[in-house]
Automatic annotation (TrEMBL):
The gene is PARPA_12470.1 scaffold 45109. It comes from Parasitella parasitica. The chain crosses the membrane at residues 130-151, 157-176, 218-236, 242-263, 327-347, 367-388, 400-420, 440-461, 473-496, 502-521. GO terms for molecular function: dipeptide transmembrane transporter activity. GO terms for cellular component: plasma membrane. It is found in: Membrane. It holds the Pfam family PTR2. Residues 1-34 are annotated as: Disordered. This is Major facilitator superfamily (MFS) profile domain-containing protein. Residues 1-11 have a biased composition (Basic and acidic residues). It comes from the Eukaryota. Its main location: membrane.
Length: 562
């Protein structure tokens, strides 16, 4: 693509029907400059192995949401005398303790991906890391289910068992989360756009950008289908008890492990990269203390001109420097996400407690959180097939930064509405509680926010990361959830009556401000999105680069051994 075109805004991406396409693997002409101007863009076919990875994610998310759905009631309320129960419970620790522990669980689940990413990118590779952490995850599930039995609760094992279980489960889920999204995207190997003809004789451009957008929409859709497990587990919790509520997701995790293992020969697996942190640290050392310039100045092509004596020690190439710069720009965008995740976290703890003070009929209060995934399951295909193409026909092209900004705005609206509902609850003087149906818009607005902020964040993390750092950059994106949990810990003291209205109002205001600032500071990234995604090396260059670093690693090993 010409330099002029690389500087233009990302071209239009239009959804399509895969059945409309036919393809000759040996006939993939590159688009000309005129093609880029005139032809619409579409996504490529998604490989079968990607669907296998989607099954793994579905089982893991079914398990995660199925067991975490009852957590708030499990901790907050005392054990009822019998089942079915008007209000299920086990520990009787109160709302503040329940919110604190569920917040810690979220914190732990989103800090462990860093460890999982390092294990994958440097030592095991994504596939073997997922298999290892799946086994760890399963051990935690067994502990949680066993200590949630009637005998376990009666003998005081529920609380210590819960603490041990969530630590083990959090380690397992963190190791899986940092690797499964990059693994599903890795199954699509085409890196260059090409022109093809549909069965309707329309010439179109098939692009990696459109394909990755489709893959991550599909990935997020699968997550939310799996999250509907909380409907079943909250019903089991209310009518039978907590042990079957945790046994169901434990059993569902078994097919996920089997798919990981049995499908091992079908996955495209990038080998572990090795000492990526050492290489990046050496590059920054050059920049700060040796070259004393920008990262651009540390490119080998520039070092050859300015510091030829340093060239032999440079284990990176020009492309790695460009990739690292691209990843750093993405990580700066991620710095805003803790405020977004703070809004999102309310649907899994404080809104559940709010529903407990409202009229829910014969359904459990914590079933309300399932409105969020139901909205997403319905809305994501509509957005992908109809809304985005319609907007583009009117010249409205939603780049990733604009989508993220819109996501923050919807999260702000959701929290503002929730503050209004909480105020209505406090003002209610009737003997009859307010219907929990008033909560529905809260979940709808948060779901809308996920379509724009969460889906795009996953896509952005993968596309902007160097090949050798896919899991690590994804883990850094997930780490923003961890910082949101820290903020949530700071708000535990106000997560009590009558302060909840002001807590929701403050969170809403913060997200609204961030929605503006994200666009103000980063909107220029949308103009260079396609050019950034094109950064990479050819197969032969990649092979030479890997051989160079393998040789360097062997030299360093011999030095250490000596």
């Amino acid at each position: 693509m010409s330099e002029k075109l690389e500087q233009e805004k990302a071209p239009e991406i239009v959804a399509y029907d895969e059945a409309d396409l036919h393809e000759d693997e040996h006939d993939r002409p590159e688009p000309t400059e005129e093609d880029w101007k005139e032809l619409r863009q579409i996504a490529d076919d998604v490989p079968f192995s990607a669907y296998l990875v989607l099954v793994i994610e579905f089982c893991e998310r079914f398990t995660y949401y199925g067991l975490s759905g009852p957590f708030q009631n499990y901790i907050q309320n005392p054990a009822p005398e019998s089942y079915p129960a008007e209000q299920a419970g086990a520990m009787g620790k109160g709302q503040q303790t329940a919110t604190a522990l569920t917040t810690f669980f979220q914190f732990w689940c989103y800090i462990t991906p860093i460890f999982g990413a390092v294990v994958a990118d440097q030592y095991l590779g994504k596939y073997r890391a997922i298999l290892l952490f799946s086994i760890i995850y399963f051990i935690g599930l067994i502990i949680l289910t066993a200590t949630a039995s009637p005998a376990g609760i009666a003998n005081g094992a529920a609380f210590p068992g819960f603490i041990v279980a969530i630590i083990i489960i959090g380690l397992g889920t963190g190791g899986i989360k940092s690797n499964v999204a990059p693994l599903i995207a890795e199954q699509y190997q085409s890196k260059s756009p090409y022109v093809k003809v549909t069965k309707k004789n329309e010439r179109v451009i098939v692009t990696p950008q459109a394909t990755y957008q489709k893959i991550f929409n599909m990935f997020y859709w699968g997550i939310n289908v799996g999250s509907l497990s909380a409907i079943a587990t909250t019903e089991l919790e209310k009518n039978v008890g907590f042990w079957p509520a945790y046994l169901l997701p434990t059993l569902m995790f078994i097919p996920g492990i089997l798919v990981v293992f049995l499908g091992r020969k079908r996955y495209i697996q990038a080998p572990p990269r090795g000492s990526i942190f050492v290489e990046a640290a050496r590059l920054f050392k050059y920049r700060l203390f040796t070259v004393k310039g920008s990262l651009e100045a540390c490119k080998p092509s520039n070092l050859a001109q300015t510091h030829p004596e340093l060239l032999e020690k440079a284990t990176w190439d020009d492309v790695f420097v460009d990739e690292l710069k691209r990843a750093l720009r993405a990580c700066v965008v991620f710095c805003w996400y803790p405020i977004y995740w703070l809004c999102y976290a309310q649907i899994s703890n404080n809104l559940i407690s709010q529903a407990a003070t409202m009229w829910t009929g014969n359904v459990p209060n914590d079933i309300m959180q399932n409105i969020d995934p139901i909205v997403l399951i319905i809305t994501i295909p509509i957005m992908d097939r109809f809304v985005y193409p319609t907007l583009r026909r009117f010249g409205i092209n939603l780049g990733p930064i604009l989508r993220i900004s819109i996501g923050f705005f919807f999260a702000s609206v959701g929290m503002a509405y929730t503050a209004g509902i909480q105020s209505k609850i406090y003002a209610n003087t009737s003997e009859y509680p307010i219907s929990a149906g008033y909560q529905i818009p809260s979940y709808v607005f948060v779901a809308f926010s996920e379509i724009f902020a969460s889906v795009t964040g996953n896509e952005y993390a993968y596309k902007k990361a160097p090949q050798s750092m896919k899991s690590i950059v994804m883990a850094l994106f997930l780490l923003t959830n961890c910082f949101a949990s820290i903020l949530a810990f700071a708000l535990v003291s106000v997560a009590v009556d009558p302060k909840l209205t002001w807590m929701y109002t403050g969170i809403s205001a913060a997200s609204f401000i961030c929605s503006i600032l994200v666009y103000v500071f980063h909107h220029k990234n949308d103009a260079t999105d396609v050019a950034d995604d094109a950064i990479g090396r050819t197969g032969e260059a990649q092979k030479q680069y890997e051989n160079q670093n393998k040789k360097q690693a062997e030299i360093e090993y011999e030095i250490e051994k000596a």
